Amino acid sequence: MEVTTHRGEGPLQQVIEIGKHRILTDVKPEFGGEDSGPEPHDILAAALAACTTLTVSLYAKRKGYALDEVKVSIKHGQEGAAYGLHRVIEYVGALDSDAKARLTDIANKCPVHKTLSGTIQITTEAR
């Protein structure tokens, strides 16, 4: 899958195109934008949250866990030399502590979590 971006309508607004989908990203007015969409780091955090809920939900369904819903919140920001992502997972349903622990193990194996926790290599080609 290829992701592309191009300038949107605002001074700093960007249009992200992922296949047939379009997402806007922008920055707050104090940084010169119009706050017409989430900032790029917010989209990164959203990817982790969405991947977590999808991965946990699929696993729970396959194993027959009584999981009614998964709620994920992520606080993020620069913490010294590192960028921090603090994830809180709420399991809604009739689950014991062992089931919740297993689902948390599975959450830590979601593809986006594994990508962000591993070595990332970015190559850049200018045209």
UniProtKB/TrEMBL annotation:
<protein>
    <submittedName>
        <fullName>OsmC family peroxiredoxin</fullName>
    </submittedName>
</protein>
<dbReference type="InterPro" id="IPR036102">
    <property type="entry name" value="OsmC/Ohrsf"/>
</dbReference>
<dbReference type="InterPro" id="IPR003718">
    <property type="entry name" value="OsmC/Ohr_fam"/>
</dbReference>
<dbReference type="Pfam" id="PF02566">
    <property type="entry name" value="OsmC"/>
</dbReference>
<dbReference type="InterPro" id="IPR015946">
    <property type="entry name" value="KH_dom-like_a/b"/>
</dbReference>
